[in-house]
Amino acid sequence: MAPNSDDVGKDVAALKISDEPEKPRADSAAAASTAPEKGDPNISANHMGGDMWVVKPVPGAGYGAVALRKIARGERIMADKPLFVVPTTVNDVKTMSQIIALGLKKASKDQAREFLTLDNAHKANGPLVGTASTNVHPMGGGGATEAGLFLAACRINHACVPNAQNKWRKDLGRMTVHAARDIAAGEEITLTYLPALFPWAERQTILKKHFGFLCACATCSLPAGEKRDASDKRRKDINELDEKLGDGKRIVKHAEAMLHDAWRKLRLLQEEGITDAWVSRAYHDAFQIAIANGDQARAKVFAERDYEATVACEGKDSPEAAQTMDWVKYPKGHPLYSGKLQWKQGVDKIPKDLSAEEFEKWLFKLPPEGLAK
Ligand SMILES: C[S@@+](CC[C@H](N)C(=O)[O-])C[C@H]1O[C@@H](n2cnc3c(N)ncnc32)[C@H](O)[C@@H]1O
């Protein structure tokens, strides 16, 4: 964020993907090598971690949240209430400072003091706005109009292939964080601060500008050359496929090509090690393609996979998961369903005796020889 930016509100919440789009971070091996220990009692997040995680110093990144035991994919790591909320539409530092000061007045003295000990990557904007810009999370997906300061969630450091997913749960009034894959005891819990899958050079520029650090996560530590280029290309391809899959005009005319795009996107996510909300989004795309073409059998399978991925990242109690379960039970209920279209078939047509490989070929309408990636 530029010093004294006239677009403070936007900048405060511009980054950190929350509700949409690892390998251990390079330094999480170091975290793993130290025996789990009690965190700093002055860090309020430590009252929330129980036997699951603790906030403690991590090499090269200040404090971070570190798993005290294995955390299985889908386990809820935290459900954090905001200390204060700021609008993302306020455009000047002075007004934003006043809003934060008011918010802090309502907090306990210890919490207000703790807020002022957090990282500030924008010192030119003063302690309140600078610290908030470095630590708030948007409350909702792209275009969120509010951002919150969550004293536990803000301790989670960034990785470009994170092992956890955050989600603003309006229904609970809390920011939840779930394990997006199994996290080993001693491993650091990570989220992505980035709203899209940028290539390496762009990631470094954005993270330095908005959060004041150069990323050395496992993905960023890939050696320059073949491996880094391959990761950059995967990210570029995923973004392009994501855009193509969002083009509703292709959904009937180019249905099969779109289903193949969904397959490619899922393969690339897997190769990149991405297990967070990108996966449910890809299965949701595939579900929409199937149901918009009248295929309830494939739609049901895609909805089941979307449900599994949504529950893992948001919890069983998430309203989105409940909505997805409705499509699992009754795919025809989706507004895009038309019984007249080219792929019309009922849920009874889900094949039962195929090998896993053959089932995937059936599901994504792949040719017998498979698809070029
Ligand atoms: C939201 S805070 C995260 C918690 C913070 N490390 C702390 O000590 O409270 C964001 C700040 O943490 C640090 N940080 C987060 N992820 C990092 C990473 N992958 N490598 C180095 N520093 C990181 C940066 O200083 C960043 O401005």
Tell me what the structure shows.
There is one protein chain. The radius of gyration is 22 Å and the shape is elongated. It has helices at 8-14, 28-33, 93-106, 109-117, 126-135, 200-211, 226-245, 250-253, 255-272, 277-292, 296-314, 319-329, 356-363; strands at residues 53-57, 63-67, 76-80, 84-87, 137-138, 146-149, 157-158, 164-169, 174-179, 190-191. Helices cover 41% and strands 11% of the residues. Strands 3-9-8 form a three-stranded antiparallel beta sheet. A three-stranded antiparallel beta sheet has the order 4-6-5. The longest helix is centred in the middle third of the chain and has 20 residues, at 226-245. Strand 1 (53-57) and strand 2 form a beta hairpin. It folds into two domains: 8-196, SET domain (Beta-clip-like, Beta Complex), CATH 2.170.270; 226-363, no CATH class. The protein is built from 13 helices and ten strands. Mean pLDDT is 90; it is low at 1-36. By secondary structure, the chain is an alpha+beta fold. Bound molecules: S-adenosylmethionine.
Helix content: 40-55%
Annotation field: number of helices: 13
CATH superfamily of the largest domain: SET domain
- Rg, Cα atoms, Å: 22 Å
Rounded mean pLDDT is 90
Distance between the termini: 38 Å
What is the third-level CATH name, the topology of the largest domain? Answer: Beta-clip-like
Q: Taking strands numbered 1, 2, ... along the chain, how are they ordered across the largest sheet?
A: 3-9-8
Residue windows where pLDDT falls under 50 for at least 5 positions: 1-36
β-strand percent reads 5-15%
What is the CATH top level name of the largest domain?
Mainly Beta
Architecture per CATH nomenclature, i.e. the level-2 architecture of the largest domain = Beta Complex
Identify the bound ligands.
Answer: S-adenosylmethionine
Strand element count: 10
What class would the helix/strand composition place it in? alpha+beta
Q: Assign an overall shape.
A: elongated
Total count of domains: 2
SSE order, one letter for each helix or strand = HHEEEEHHHEEEEEEHHHHHHHH
Protein name: SET domain-containing protein
Domain SET: 51-194
Region (Disordered): 1-43
InterPro entries: SET_dom (IPR001214), SET_dom_sf (IPR046341), SET_domain_protein (IPR053185), TPR-like_helical_dom_sf (IPR011990)
